[in-house]
Amino acid sequence: MPQYEVIRGADNEIEFQGLKGKYVYYLFGGLAGVVLMGLLFFLLLPSSTLAGLLTLSGAAGVFYLSFQWNKKYGRWGMEKQKIQKQLPGYVVMRHPYTLIKRKNA
User: Fold this and answer.
1) What pLDDT digit, counting tens, does each position of 35-44 carry?
2) Does any domain span residue 60?
3) Torsions phi, psi of 19, nearest 5?
4) Cα(67)–Cα(27) distance, integer angstroms
5) Which domain holds residue 50?
6) InterPro entries from the entry (predicted)?
7) CA–CA dist 66, 20 (Å, integer)
8) Considering the domain boundaries, does residue 59 fall inside one?
């Protein structure tokens, strides 16, 4: 029988400054969006100070939201809530199941 080496930690999720898993990607994606919006603000707004403040407040908001979601939902919490909303509250059975007899049995 072939022997395979066990790689410990292969299933571990990525972690950055306490953020785990998908929340790291949410943080980096949000920051990328904030940087692009900041460039747009600097081009369109007459005051660069206002553009800088809007960009910094957007970055702070992304940091705050990603850390709060990480703390509130954990690794699987957000997906579990989405699925639990789709579950029915109760099941109605109008016709009871009947046993079907096979002819050849």
Assistant:
1) 999 999 999 9
2) yes
3) -80, 140
4) 9
5) 15-103
6) DUF4133
7) 10
8) yes
